[in-house]
Amino acid sequence: MAESNECFNIGSTVTCKTCFNEDLQGEVLAFDPHVKLLTLKSPSSNGRSATYDIHMVNLSYVSQVTVMREAAGSPLPSLPSLNLSKLSNRAKKSIDEKQRLIEAMQSGVSPVGQKLFLHIRKTMEEVKWAGVSILVMGQVIISPPYQLENVKEQKEGKESNSKTLPYVKKLVDKFHQDQQSLSLNNGTSATPVVAEVQPVSQ
Q: What angle, rounded to 10 degrees, do the helices at 111-121 and 164-185 form?
């Protein structure tokens, strides 16, 4: 195997001599140092000026690599630094929210409650589960069975915002109107019907 650079600058021109004693020359398009895979672009072997030959060269099977022309600049463009703390907090918040959803489902949250939760989350970010109830902005709580009359102001929470309760009530009312319309369009009743099944006599 040839002793290769840790990295080849994109745009450099290199020549590789393979273990089959074949010489390949071309412009570096990409290089993966982990698997030692070099991608070269060469003039087309069919003579057409508008096309190119692309070679994927495994440097483990190359006896010699020669840099014919070094491209100016760094191998890769610099990337903006990541705010790791912000990403970590976002991931933790997402995991905690999914855990609360799992706990709520295990506690017996109905499908209506789950749909209402997702409906509110579309327009309000600070929505979380408090047991089987939905807590909005720490100010408004929606208890089962999640109807309009179950929307109450949270007594022990953040300082009340007079606009929050009416707005959440509008969201809940809109949600149930949409569910009612959907049920009518599907030809089903919004109220579940329980059928009594009689045992079959032998």
A: 120
* Residues 114, 106 contacting (CB under 8 angstroms): no
CB 62 within 8 A of CB 20: no
Tell which wins on pLDDT, 174 or 122: 174
Spatial contact of 141 and 130, defined as CB atoms under 8 Å apart:
yes
State pLDDT tens for residues 52-108: 889 888 888 888 888 888 876 555 555 567 678 888 888 888 887 777 777 767 777
Q: What is the pTM of this model?
A: 0.45
**Token pair in block for residue 86:** 């912000």
Q: How many CB atoms lie within 10 A of CB 138?
A: 17
Angle between helices 111-121 and 84-106 (to 10 degrees): 160
Range 146-181 burial, b when 16+ CB lie within 10 A, else e: beeeebeebeeeeeeeeebbeebbebbeebbeeeee
Give φ, ψ of 130 to 5 degrees.
Answer: -125, 85
Distance CA 164, CA 167 (A): 5
Q: Tell me: the pLDDT tens digits for 108-161?
A: 788 899 889 989 988 888 888 888 899 999 999 999 999 999 999 987 555 555
